[in-house]
Amino acid sequence: MNNDLTFCQMPLDRASTLRKDQTWMQDKLSSEDSCFYFFWRGKFLYHQQKLTIFTKKNSIDTESEYTHAEVFTDALHTNGTIFLGTSADIAYFVCDLSIMTDDEIGLWLAKLVIENIKFIDFRRSLSLLSPQQAAILSYGKALIHWQQSALHCGGCGAKTKALDGGHRRVCLDDNCQKEHFPRTDPAVIMLVEYQPKSGPAVCLLAEHHRTPEQAFSTLAGFVDPGESLQEAVAREVLEEAGVHVTNIRYVDSQPWPFPNSLMIGFIAQASGLDLCLEEEELRSAAWFTAKQLVDFKEWGDDIEGPKLPRKESIARLLIDAWCKSQFEASAQVIAKANQE
After folding, report:
1. Are residues 65 and 143 in the same domain?
2. How many domains does the chain have?
């Protein structure tokens, strides 16, 4: 399957070798051509609903790019600048200003002297972004989350220092010096289907306690240590819904920066329709035909009724792909019957 999912169209070269060169990194940080995004407590900086890119050069692209020497001085002093990658030899960075208080960030924004500029929550701003922009920002957000959680060594508790443009941290204790690298948590997400002996196939969707009422989605869960992806699928479905599954097939994957997961999508075949829900995880669950899902509303709609997951999610891809396959199969059956 072609991966057109949100967060999956990274346009930058991550330059994993070059970022280890401290001289090269310093040159890029000082370059007038380098581009900087600004992040503050889960939000990125926008101007008139457009993502802003700051540079140190004198020319200004009035739609998206600004220059202001003082904002760079203040931002770089936070020690929260992370290298994201390059494009046409231009380096891209994200500056994490989360250490600033509300008052401090307000003063920092005032120095820009730009009207209608503000920080917008990343998840809520996805509709404002191109697929490439969403991929870049998700990468930056995941790295920032890791940086914030790795300020101290997990081995001895001493402070750590960022290296390689923020892609490695080293313990400052001389007796430890443990290296720390960004981690991604693998999570399986699966659409469970059942094909009765007669009639249309159905899929299992559930209301999760962490989502609004009447928002239905697929089952999902983190992979346990020492567990294969297929084992995780079977275990999670059995634990959450009481259903045994077989014929587990991989579909696609998606980085999910909320905060730092890799969602790995599957379709699995249920052995029966009986459900036994894990009530701490699920509010409700039911089996639906593809025809029924056509009438579901969109996530975020104010209209009453069951709703499908967000369009940017792999859960939605699994549901849409399954519905498409069911309609195509029905059309083939009808066509064959007409020929006979």
Report:
1. yes
2. 2
